[in-house]
Amino acid sequence: MEGLGDAFLARLRDDLIQRRIASGLEYLERNRSALESLDPARSGAGVLLGRLAQWVDIGFAGTELLRCVLARFSRESRGSLPLLDFLHVKMAEGLLAFQGEEPDQAIRSFEVAASLAEEAGDAELLTISNFWIGRCLRQEGRYDDALNYTVRAREAAAASGYGKIAAVIQVLESWLIFQKNKLREAERILRDAEAVLEQTDDYISRGNIQSAYGRIARREGRYDRALEHFERAIALYKERDAHHRNLARSLVNMASVKRLVAVQLQRKLDRDAARRRERARSHRTGSERERLERLRREAFSHLEEAAAIYAGHPTHHGTGAIHINRGFLYLDSGELDRAGEEAGSAFRLGEEKRDYILMARARILACIVENAKFEEQIEELAGPSMHAQLAAEYARDAVEFARRTQNPRLLARAYIWQGLTFSNEFFDDANAARECCDAATALLKPDVRDYIWDDLQELRSRVLKKGPIDTVLQEWSQGLVGGKTFQQITEEFAGIIIPKVWEREGRKVSRVAAKLSVSPKKVRRVLQAGGLLKRE
What we know:
By secondary structure, the chain is mainly α. It contains 28 helices and no strands. The protein has a domain at about 5-200: Tetratricopeptide repeat domain (Serine Threonine Protein Phosphatase 5, Tetratricopeptide repeat, Alpha Horseshoe). Helix content is about 80%, strand content about 0%. α8 packs antiparallel against α9, α12 (about 185-195) runs antiparallel to α13 and α22 (about 430-445) runs antiparallel to α23.
């Protein structure tokens, strides 16, 4: 065991800045007993506590050791600490709150450190405090605010020559840029960070980079590529810790992607069955059904493995994500009651921590389940109408919770399902559905065509079928565009005119393309969005 003097602190600091993770963890383990008996009265004890907090965040020991050491720094004794020591104590206090999923409390502690770090002459403290505030704000869904702090942290790190720390911060920056649907910029930032960190043994940050690549690929519908990145992320996490919390998150992401692939495959099988193709394709259909069942089994298995990890590293948000994804899997297989139970479990977890993202996602799932029950005319208590009314209540809740975040896609999805609920046979409110459709369209980028975009196309199709086209055209002629962009109006007009021309041209895509001087691909996309090619 070595002394906990200046040399000890310098070694830990240098390993942290250079991302020599194994070296730092081994050095801390050799001195663990000295850390456990740290005397708050000794010189530099507060700074050592803050340094310990940074290493606990990376993966050393766990929060219980940090909690025990922090408990020795009583409220009364902190008043006599040097400023730098006091600020590091606040950082340790904030990290424990963050790990306990109390982001507001954590932010208050980190803000104290951030506001006085320059006065204390500690550039590293300024960097880490702003970085950790950004992480807290991300946890709350306040993405714009989180990005401001994250950029501030990255700039402070770069100005101080902490290139590898800046790269770690860039991973969070990229994730927040991704939430703004700036996918290419997010990828560029990730590549820059990857180039700096690929020769280090910071497997968690490197795993986070692969996970972020996977999420970008998933949003673009490149599901095979997304699975590859999530598998790489899992392998990297396991290099550091086979039970790391981030590993569980990637397992949930893999389950989500496999479920989306299964949904695509199910739709294809449904189309094949509707077309009653020749018997020669029956063997292929059978193999596709086997693949479908395998994907669902694997998705459930990933969620079970993630749940086991979260049991040792409790997190409301992570466990809630498992319930949400499991609920969608049950929904896909027609087990509506079990899907509803998963939505309820997720909502209760979100409610405990006022996690508005989780609460909104849970209500969206519950809304979808109740709509499915209404469409199947499941009679319980007051009959199918009860399910329509519950769907409307859940949709209203989802919109309200999503509005409390800075997550435009989440809010768009809530609006979409509120619109789909308004357009069902019970409410049949075309005007309300159109308002929801317009609100969702304004929040989504037209060049990102994922499962949320598919739902939006279904809503658009219903609105166009139910709504009076003459009224829409009249409003446009008077300059009443309802806040829509020219591109959005063009898309909506295409959705009106192309199906009409298609009917007049004998339902021939090539004739429509030639008559309107548009690509056949554009014609097919519009017709598919309206559900017309599926019926054919």
